């Protein structure tokens, strides 16, 4: 079913078709179950190749999986195995060379320009190892920014929500008006997590979120991400950190761009029927 937000993003006659599914439309339709968690991220033979000095590098090589709301997924693998490239593909920060990627029921590989930006802003939250906060903005302003870009909220509503989110992630109120340069790594990562969830995304993508903080803060960051998954979001984390892997519901191991192990992975049955484009239909 196309949600209200999707309908706003993609008027029905322009709605991108799903390019494919791990299940047939019949199976997905027949087995619809209202209590089954919805699939939020679905990759089908997703690949990314780079050409480097005449050499073809298969950074992500025919990868397929589907994750549902509420899942905490760790992507593991040796250096150069394709973890970050896969995460960037999932986040739309890079385009796949081939394959399909459905996010929250929409084939994102077919989005372009503004549609893509709006989709990412509304459905995805990013957390990076290096935090990537805007240095000239305070913690509060950094969290307000995604809401401002999305639009539809008054300044005081944005302020109130940002302040609430910063409290939720445990940033002391006396730090809310500090710029990132005056915050510790752990405090900056809390701000980055608050910013990632500012627009209440369905999916959170994190690239080594504990890579730049001490072990104690790392555990706190993991707890926060785990809570976000328990609240119903899909949280996908690229990590070398065994304690992140330890709390994950699903562990996905990559080597040379291919999945070599999917631990605890159960292919979900799609909760919603596959959307097919209806040509010429008016809203
Ligand atoms: N822009 C690019 N151009 C050429 N090759 C690239 C590019 N980006 C990544 N690669 C190559 O793709 C492969 C996968 O890289 P990727 O950064 O995804 O690995 P990773 O598992 O995240 O590594 P690490 O754990 O060290 O961050 C590597 O061989 C890398 O050199």
Q: Give the low-confidence spans.
A: 1-32, 271-283
State the distance separating the first and last CA atoms: 15 Å
Task: Tell me the major beta sheet.
Answer: 6 strands, mixed
Reported CATH architecture: 3-Layer(aba) Sandwich
Number of strands: 10
Shape: globular
- State the share of residues found in helices, binned by percent: 25-40%
CATH superfamily: P-loop containing nucleotide triphosphate hydrolases
How much of the sequence lies in strands comes to 15-25%
The CATH topology:
Rossmann fold
Order of helices and strands: HHEEEHEEHEHHHEHEHEE
Discrete helix count: 9
Strand order of the largest sheet: 6-7-8-3-9-10
Summed up, the domain count is 1
Overview features:
single chain, 283 residues, alpha/beta, Rossmann fold, six-stranded mixed beta sheet, four-stranded antiparallel beta sheet, 9 helices, 10 strands, 32% helix, globular, disordered N terminus, binds adenosine-5'-triphosphate
Q: Which helices and strands, and how do they pair?
A:
Blueprint: H1 4-9, H2 25-30, E1 39-52, E2 55-68, E3 72-76, H3 83-90, E4 98-103, E5 106-107, H4 113-123, E6 124-128, H5 139-150, H6 155-168, H7 185-196, E7 203-207, H8 215-230, E8 234-238, H9 242-247, E9 250-255, E10 258-263
Parallel strand pairs: 3-8, 3-9, 6-7, 7-8
Antiparallel strand pairs: 1-2, 1-4, 4-5, 9-10
Bound molecules: adenosine-5'-triphosphate (ATP).
């Amino acid at each position: 079913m196309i949600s209200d937000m999707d309908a706003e993003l993609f008027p029905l006659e322009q709605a991108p078709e799903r390019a494919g599914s791990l299940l047939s439309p019949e199976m997905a339709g027949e087995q619809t179950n209202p209590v089954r968690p919805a699939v939020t991220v679905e990759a089908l033979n997703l690949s990314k190749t780079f050409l480097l000095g005449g050499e073809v590098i298969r950074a992500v090589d025919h990868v397929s999986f589907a994750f549902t709301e509420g899942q905490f997924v760790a992507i593991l693998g040796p250096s150069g195995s394709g973890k970050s490239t896969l995460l960037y593909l999932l986040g739309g920060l890079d385009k796949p060379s081939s394959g399909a990627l459905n996010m929250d029921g929409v084939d994102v590989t077919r989005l372009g320009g503004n549609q893509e930006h709006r989709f990412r802003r509304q459905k995805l939250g990013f957390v990076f190892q290096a935090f990537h906060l805007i240095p000239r903005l305070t913690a509060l302003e950094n969290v307000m920014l995604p809401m401002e870009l999305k639009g539809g909220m008054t300044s005081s509503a944005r302020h109130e929500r940002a302040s609430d989110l910063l409290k939720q992630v445990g940033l002391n109120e006396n730090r809310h008006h500090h710029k990132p340069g005056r915050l510790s790594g752990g405090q900056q990562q809390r701000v980055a997590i608050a910013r990632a969830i500012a627009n209440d995304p369905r999916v959170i993508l994190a690239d080594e979120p504990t890579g730049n903080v001490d072990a104690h803060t790392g555990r706190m960051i993991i707890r926060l991400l785990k809570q976000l998954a328990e609240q119903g979001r899909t949280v996908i984390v690229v990590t070398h950190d065994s304690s992140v892997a330890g709390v994950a519901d699903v562990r996905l191991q990559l080597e040379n761009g291919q999945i070599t192990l999917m631990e605890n992975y159960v292919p979900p049955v799609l909760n919603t029927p596959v959307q097919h484009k209806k040509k010429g239909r008016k809203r």
